């Protein structure tokens, strides 16, 4: 499976995400980089390929990663992928709950308790967030 | 019935190692109304060959999960958690000697782990119940017979990123928010918050439903006062399911090793479920390094009962 490393610089933090080309996540590197209507601060968005179902936006993944890093006090060397499980990083139930709170604050959404079980990885968190944000709009 | 105190001299433990459960001190199952609690402190387990021995008793899946943890300390506490569960259950030598490696586990419909006893269909599964909890600095396993159990341990001074009240407003019930808001000293408020958190976690784990199955806002844990206004009992009121006999559950709250709060929630039995008198559960606590040393710490400074 091809592996691409993308470096996103934004929000005052530098986050390294490894993006793999499988159906779960963001599209191939050959996707168009389109300068469409600015969503946040006018930075470019990478169009996702149609193959992906429930693919979270790169900026969502980035924000989620930043919140997880802060909550778990991770060192910059700790590599995060969308598939990284919070438990692998040492998050216990209190940490997970705080991560959810942090995400709710950041994205102005409300996560039902019943959904907290499905937020176990960065990808799952980002997918749910995008879904909830879309519902709000 | 206190179990004696066996201790191998640390300087010769390497020679007295055995790669079998015979080096686990056998112990009798807890009685009805009795709870056993075993804990291990990862900082006290340093020997590499001992850790390898622990790795060896895990299932392949468990080993995989341990190795996926990011960082040596996290791997060690994950390893000790599985080791503690397997060796603890193996001590009870139900029917015959059990090799900790041979134990199999499964999850109930809500995802709560339980033993998948490998006896023939004729024999009834032993009525042993267990639950574990771990922080990076302490791993604990509670055991009961004929009674569901949930435990939670937290570092007393663990940091939280949000304020106590914003956390409580988001997750706790109205009564609990009021309780915490009424505490003026922020340090005391934080400690009471951690205690309440461990009690709530222990309850949902005892129910077997976990956090998402029994949202924290749907029940209140409070301290019932006796006639002289001393907190005498921890009780739970459930809003969503008033028919769920919440008087079925009893709680203990301890301070372990001066560093952690441990909450234990177990099912009350029919005899005391009427709640006429709170029949205290007998609790026995061991500090252990599996295969090396077991120390009964009940009644010592390592175990301070807060409630229960």
TrEMBL record, chain A:
PROSITE patterns: CARRIER, PHOSPHOPANTETHEINE. It comes from Erythranthe guttata (Yellow monkey flower). Gene3D superfamilies: ACP-like (1.10.1200.10). Keywords: Chloroplast, Fatty acid biosynthesis, Fatty acid metabolism, Lipid biosynthesis, Lipid metabolism, Phosphopantetheine, Phosphoprotein, Plastid, Transit peptide. Carrier of the growing fatty acid chain in fatty acid biosynthesis. GO terms for cellular component: chloroplast. It is found in: Plastid, Chloroplast. The keyword Lyase does not apply. It holds the Pfam family PP-binding. Belongs to the acyl carrier protein (ACP) family. One of its GO terms (molecular function) is acyl carrier activity. The keyword Transit peptide applies. The lineage of its organism: Eukaryota, Viridiplantae, Streptophyta, Embryophyta, Tracheophyta. This is Acyl carrier protein. InterPro entries: ACP (IPR003231), ACP-like_sf (IPR036736), ACP_chloroplastic (IPR044813), PP-bd_ACP (IPR009081), Ppantetheine_attach_site (IPR006162). Residues 58-133 form the Carrier domain.
């Amino acid at each position: 499976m091809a592996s691409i490393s993308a470096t996103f610089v934004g929000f005052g933090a530098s986050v390294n995400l490894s993006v793999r080309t499988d159906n779960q996540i963001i599209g191939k590197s050959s996707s168009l980089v389109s300068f469409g209507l600015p969503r946040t601060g006018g930075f470019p968005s990478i169009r996702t390929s149609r193959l992906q179902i429930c693919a979270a936006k790169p900026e969502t993944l980035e924000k989620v990663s930043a919140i997880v890093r802060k909550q778990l006090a991770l060192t910059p060397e700790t590599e995060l992928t969308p598939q990284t499980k919070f438990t692998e990083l040492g998050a216990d139930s209190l940490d997970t709950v705080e991560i959810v709170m942090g995400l709710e604050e950041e994205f102005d959404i409300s996560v039902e308790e019943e959904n907290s079980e499905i937020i176990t990885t960065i990808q799952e968190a980002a997918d749910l967030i995008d879904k909830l944000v879309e519902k709000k709009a | 019935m206190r179990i004696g105190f066996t201790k191998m001299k640390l300087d010769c433990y390497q020679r007295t190692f055995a790669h079998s459960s015979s080096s686990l001190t056998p112990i009798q199952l807890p009685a009805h109304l009795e709870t056993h609690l075993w804990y291990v402190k990862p900082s006290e387990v340093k020997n590499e060959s001992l850790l390898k021995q622990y790795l060896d008793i895990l299932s392949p899946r468990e080993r995989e999960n341990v190795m996926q943890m990011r960082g040596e300390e996290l791997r060690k506490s994950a390893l000790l958690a599985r080791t503690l569960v397997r060796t603890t259950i193996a001590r009870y030598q139900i029917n015959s000697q059990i090799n900790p490696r041979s134990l199999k586990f499964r999850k109930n419909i809500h995802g709560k782990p339980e033993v998948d006893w490998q006896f023939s269909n004729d024999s009834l599964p032993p009525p042993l119940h267990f639950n574990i909890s771990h922080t990076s600095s302490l791993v604990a396993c509670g055991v009961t017979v004929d009674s569901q159990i949930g435990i939670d341990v937290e570092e007393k001074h663990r940091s939280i990123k949000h304020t106590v009240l914003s956390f409580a407003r988001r997750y706790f019930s109205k009564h609990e928010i009021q309780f915490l808001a009424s505490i003026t000293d922020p340090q005391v408020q934080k400690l009471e918050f951690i205690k309440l958190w461990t009690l709530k976690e222990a309850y949902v784990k005892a129910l077997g439903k976990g956090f998402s199955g029994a949202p924290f806002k749907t029940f209140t844990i409070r301290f019932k006062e006796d006639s002289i206004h001393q907190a005498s009992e921890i009780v739970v009121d459930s809003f969503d399911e008033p028919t769920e006999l919440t008087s079925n559950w009893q709680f203990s709250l301890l301070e372990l090793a001066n560093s952690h709060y441990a909450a234990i929630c177990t099912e009350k039995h029919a005899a005391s479920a009427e709640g006429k008198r709170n029949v205290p559960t007998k609790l026995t606590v061991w500090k252990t390094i599996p295969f090396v040393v077991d120390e009964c710490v009940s009644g010592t400074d390592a175990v301070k009962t807060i409630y229960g």
